[in-house]
Amino acid sequence: MSSLTEKDRPIVQLLLNTGTCPRCILRFCCVGSQTLYRCPYKDLMKDLKEFLKNNQEKEDTVCFDVADPPCKRIRLEHTEEGPDELNHNGALQQIPSVNNENTAMENSAVKVCNVCLGILQEFCEADFVKKVCQKVNSADYQFTSFVFSVSLPPQLSVRERAAWLLVKQEMGKLGLPLAKDDIVQLKEAYKWIIHPQLSEELGVPADGKSLFEVSVVFAHPETEEECRFLATACPDCFKPAKNKQSVFTRMAVIKALEKIKEEDFLKHFPCPPTSPKSLCVALEIQCNNGAVFVAGRYNKYSRNLPQTPWIIDGERKLESSVEELISEHLMAEFKADSFNFSSSGREDVDVRTLGNGRPFAIELVNPRRIRFTAEDMKGLQQTINNSSDKIQVRDLQLVTRSAIGRMKEGEEEKTKTYSALIWTDKAIQKEDIVFLDDIKELKLDQKTPLRVLHRRPLAVRCRIIHTMRSEYIDEHHFRLHLKTQAGTYIKEFVHGDFGRTKPNIGSLLNRTADILELDVESVDVDWPPALDN
């Protein structure tokens, strides 16, 4: 059971008289009952008036008849004397007398709260909750729970500071301390009120770990006007940022409030805070679902298809890519805003990927649809495969964000198997190339290839050719099967890249060699798990 006690009386009178709403009064009286904040606004105002009419001098309690969790109470240790009444230069302003309960009650008619700017008033009402839920329902998301977040106008922190200083002074007269942390935070109180209403309207529970977020952004037209004095007092806290419309962000204001001295604050901001000219506005009501991750393996059968969109100087070179052929179907089915594609390595535009394919993962950002069975994924895989003869996917499945890390783990220690069609300028016989089969664990020094120097740092990388197997075709052609360390530049190992890769096939055969075709035959990464497709 939560209650106000006799020592709360002067605080209630003081705050009511200066234009503070009932729920903010409960916050500054350190009342921690969630249920109490959910009481109708008019009932709370009525109960506070009844409380003020109770003139018993003993520490009796006027209880609000609701069942509560444990109450958050102020500390009762004695503290030093509160600050003396300060004049206009220093200065807690003189507050009109609050000993007359009639004065407090006359000023308590419904008006915009001078602390919360209406957040704990109008925006706690059923009409606003319905407006939020209409926005959620119209967005057509799949979700089984929600987390609610709220962004408040930055000057609320300023007004809260002014109200705290006022109440702290009043508490000091009673020999009681009031730390900032004792006060129930505005966001906390607001969520106590809103959560059960949203939960009932949406038909799902509120859950702090939910991936589906409902957020409300509040704004107020007087933010800059009320925060400008902080920029003068603490200019280093307010640095313009390219992506911010105003320097007065919540974090910048909080940082300045931590830095400014109490007496400087009181010189520039009224205490108690004045009644605002207008109510807050709900600037945005947004929904966002946590990302969904899909993984699989792809085969690429075209020698004219890049892995990702091929754009040079703003001009697109080829009409499609592996990434787009896969993602366009996932985007459509999951109804996502965007995607991020990653894979275990990449092949050149003219290189095929055969065998079991190359592992890939796609992050689908803010998906509307999230419920997919294994059978649904199998059908989606078939849709992708039927849409193009350039690629095929297998083992398509939902995975977690953390599981994707396995695709990248020890990437350079993994092995890959290739098949290369090689041309030589001088005629060769089978016996000229058979020695390649006996070479094991050949160490290469590969300087960054000229063809990728525009996007890779210049470095010399040590790579290993584990095994080779030659297959003679004719006097100028043979096929070479290689098992190599991941990250080896195979084309450069064949032609030498003007001596930037040593040794190379040309130097080993003592003639000019070039590569005509290259296929990736296997990427030896044991992920994602194979499925029975």
Automatic annotation (TrEMBL):
Enzyme Commission number: 5.4.99.25
Subcellular location(s) per record: Cytoplasm; Mitochondrion; Nucleus
InterPro entries: PsdUridine_synth_cat_dom_sf, Pus10-like, Pus10-like_C, Pus10_N_euk
Superkingdom, taxonomy of origin: Eukaryota
Keyword terms: Coiled coil, Cytoplasm, Isomerase, Metal-binding, Mitochondrion, Nucleus, tRNA processing, Zinc
Main subcellular localisation: cytoplasm
GO biological-process terms attached to the record: tRNA pseudouridine synthesis
Cellular component aspect of the GO annotation: mitochondrion; nucleus
Catalytic activity, as annotated: uridine(54) in tRNA = pseudouridine(54) in tRNA; uridine(55) in tRNA = pseudouridine(55) in tRNA
Location of the Pus10-like C-terminal domain: 293-524
Pfam families the UniProt entry points to: Pus10_C, Pus10_N_euk
Ranges of residues in domain Pus10 N-terminal eukaryotes: 113-287
Enzyme class: isomerase
GO MF, one annotated term: metal ion binding
Similarity field: Belongs to the pseudouridine synthase Pus10 family.
Annotated protein name in UniProt: tRNA pseudouridine synthase Pus10
Name of the coding gene: Pus10
